[in-house]
Design goal:
The complex is a heterodimer of chains A (about 375) and B (about 260). Chain A has about 375 residues and is α/β, with parallel strands linked by helices. Chain A has helices at about 35-40, 40-45, 65-80, 90-100, 115-150, 160-170, 175-195, 205-245, 245-250, 255-295, 300-310, 315-340, 345-375; strands at about 5-10, 10-15, 20-30, 50-60, 80-85. Chain A is elongated, with a radius of gyration of 36 Å. Chain B has a domain at about 35-45 and about 95-255: P-loop containing nucleotide triphosphate hydrolases (Rossmann fold, 3-Layer(aba) Sandwich), CATH 3.40.50.300. Chain B is about 40% helix and about 25% strand. Classes of the chains: A alpha/beta (about 375), B alpha/beta (about 260). Adenosine-5'-triphosphate binds near residues 20 and 46 of chain B.
Chain lengths: ~375, ~260
């Protein structure tokens, strides 16, 4: 019996002449792959310069086993020569299928060194922001051209989708918009009254509520809720259509994606946001009135009389006039990002996030510009 | 191998009924898949081949009937048994179903990561071997599924379904979208694997060449049932309008079936 150099459940290495003899045995299948693979360094070291590998003891083999045998041979060959013998007929074809060792190939996308990442990311983000803004403006122009074109060619407007979108973005948002406006109106009165009471001026809480809610909070809250609720839905709907090549199909069928997908959403949102804002105004004031009644003992009738005296209709108009502009921004941003989805489900998620963040950002910027404008014209 | 003590019938479907709402897809369907055979499943578009496959692998809950895999009733398995049993079969979906956020090689490694703790180098080796087996260029390994052609995606998905060395392979239209050379190579690969590994294959296909060259038996799906499940010769002699049209039409003649 030849001297045994190394041994485990699946193989024995014996000293032979001139090179070592490796007897493989047992099941070389995927279930044993981890054990067999872990034993490799020790076995290869024991083989020294080359070995004859005898497969006749193998009882079961699958493709993973065949790959393992090939790996053993390749590693032994790094030190010397490796010869395979005693392959059973049943395993022969399997080894042939696997025989050609694939040349090394990349299995993951390129990684950049960590120290360059911040610089690359900062630069990339800047370029991206600039490009994205330029593209968004371009897209806005395109949409406006199609929109005004449609005014002269009303056949292009698709009424059914507009009505459907009106229901989804308008009617179905009433619950959440109403609830949030009511709570915010109530909270404003609640907190404002506590502070103003220190000056004995708690009745002015009604001025505060009227001006704050009608001018700013009502419209801003509604726009932000709609950006989160409908803007993101626009991106996701259109984006998944892009991923499934539905938009490409549309183009080949002679349908203009902007007419079919963007204009109905834009029109529906431009119509529903002012209506929702009006509704948010009413509900918010009602919330405030309720809180005033509970906390300050001002009955709703007195509340209304005082409210009509101190709050001019201008405040209401200042708020409501902003709604169509915000709607246009939200719809355009949402649809723009949807149409720009590319590749994978990841991209869809990223675009949806970006669409929401960007439209909220733009809404707030626009609101600030409006504030400056209204102050300078003295409203 | 442990194959000897396993039952001769790998998949046994009895009295299967599946329905989506009121739309009944199968009713009273019986089917046996024997160990080591390649069973071709054919039928017109929309007759429920993909639904049958999904019912067998447990993605669709049947309305009635029993499905046994390796003698175990799927409805009575515990969650752990179910998880382990999934290791024994590989599935190739009709549209590939690769994970879009992973590269091709990472896609193939997903089942390995899920069930084993292998060294990265072995996993990489296995993934590349399976890619070569499925006939895909190695440059594709680092690409994302969205950057591949339809046929390449199919091959990548095939590589993923083979990576755990399953006993039982479910293939839904594997050669659809492959070029004829690739399809022929694929036929060869399936036959080879089934011979050397004793693989059982459930193969849904519209490809007459595949049926003629590879399949041991052919099951014809129609009228919500399996019309016949027999070797090609008997199926061709079977008297049913659709079957006759299918196996004696111009395309069947071109494939050399008649
Ligand atoms: N998720 C589902 N919901 C409702 N009906 C479905 C669903 N999936 C499939 N069906 C219906 O079940 C029937 C069978 O569909 P299936 O996908 O199995 O067809 P198939 O035989 O695979 O056709 P093909 O050869 O075109 O792939 C069809 O009528 C289809 O409309
Ligand atoms: Mg199908």
């Amino acid at each position: 019996m030849a001297e045994t150099l190394a041994q485990n459940d699946f193989m024995t290495v014996e000293r032979g002449s001139p090179s070592a003899l490796v007897h493989l045995r047992g099941d070389w299948t995927i279930d044993n792959a981890v054990v067999i693979d872990e034993a490799m360094p020790a076995i290869v070291a024991a083989c020294g310069e080359g070995a004859v590998v005898d497969c006749s003891g193998i009882t079961g083999m699958d493709t993973t086993g065949a790959v393992l045998i090939r790996r053993y041979l390749a590693h032994i060959e790094e030190e010397g020569a490796a010869v395979l013998t005693g392959v059973l007929g049943a395993h022969k074809t399997l080894l042939e299928v696997i025989s050609c060792c694939p040349p090394p190939a990349q299995t993951e996308p390129d990684h950049t060194p960590w120290y360059l990442l911040p610089v690359i990311q900062a630069g990339g983000a800047t370029i991206l922001a600039l490009r994205s803004t330029a593209r968004l403006l371009g897209f806005l122009g395109l949409v406006l051209i199609r929109l005004f074109g449609a005014l002269f060619d009303p056949g292009r407007i698709r009424l059914v989708p507009v009505v459907h979108q009106l229901e989804v973005v308008g009617l179905q948002s009433m619950g959440i918009v109403g609830l949030i406006s009511f709570l915010i109106g109530a909270v404003m009165v609640n907190q404002g009254a506590i502070q103003l009471a220190k000056f004995g001026a708690d009745i002015f809480v009604i001025d505060m509520l009227g001006i704050g809610h009608l001018r700013e909070l009502g419209i801003l809250l509604t726009a932000i809720i709609i950006a989160g609720r409908s803007g993101s839905a626009f991106t996701a709907q259109i984006g998944s259509m892009v991923l499934h090549e539905e938009v490409d199909a549309m183009k080949t069928l002679g349908m203009e994606p902007i007419d079919v997908l963007v204009l109905p959403r834009l029109m529906a949102l431009t119509l529903s946001l002012p209506l929702l804002t009006f509704y948010a105004d009413v509900v918010g004031i009602a919330g405030g009135a309720m809180m005033a009644w509970i906390q300050l003992d001002i009955t709703p009738a007195n509340f209304l009389i005082y409210f009509r005296e101190v709050i001019s209709i201008d405040h209401y108009w200042v708020g409501i006039i902003k709604a169509p502009f915000f709607a246009a921004v939200i719809a355009t941003t949402g649809c723009f990002h949807g149409l720009r989805v590319q590749g994978s489900a990841d991209a869809l998620g990223m675009r949806t996030t970006r669409s929401v963040v960007q439209s909220i950002f733009l809404v707030i910027v626009l609101d600030a510009l409006f504030a400056i404008f209204f102050t300078s014209v003295g409203l | 191998m442990a194959a000897e003590k396993k039952p001769e019938i790998v998949v046994s479907v009895r009295d299967l009924k599946t329905a989506f709402g009121t739309h009944v897809v199968h009713d009273g369907l019986d089917l046996d898949v024997r160990r080591g055979e390649i069973l071709g499943v054919v039928g017109g578009s929309g007759t429920g081949k993909s639904v049958l496959l999904k019912a067998i692998i447990g993605l669709i809950k049947p309305a009635a009937g029993t499905i046994e895999i390796n003698g175990k009733n799927r409805a009575e398995m515990t969650a752990e048994e179910d998880r382990l049993s999934r290791r024994e079969w590989g599935v190739l979906f009709q549209d590939g179903a690769l994970f879009s956020s992973l590269t091709v090689a990472q896609n193939i490694q997903v089942p390995l990561r899920e069930h084993f703790h292998m060294s990265p180098s072995l996993m990489k080796d296995l993934a590349l071997s399976k890619l070569t087996m499925a006939g895909l260029e190695l440059e594709a390994a680092a690409k994302f599924p969205s950057d591949l052609s339809g046929g390449m995606r199919k091959r990548a998905a095939l590589a993923r379904s083979l990576v755990l060395d399953p006993d039982l392979l479910f293939l839904d239209e594997p050669t659809a979208g492959l070029d004829p050379i690739g399809a022929a190579a694929f036929d060869g690969l399936v036959k080879e694997l089934s011979k050397s590994l004793g693989l059982t294959v459930f193969l849904v296909t519209h490809d007459l060449d595949t049926l003629v060259r590879v399949c041991d038996r052919i099951a014809v799906l129609g009228d919500q049932k399996i019309l016949i499940n027999a070797p090609l010769k008997e199926v061709m002699a079977f008297d049913h309008p659709w079957v006759r049209e299918y196996f004696h039409g111009p395309r069947a003649r071109a494939a050399g079936a008649t």
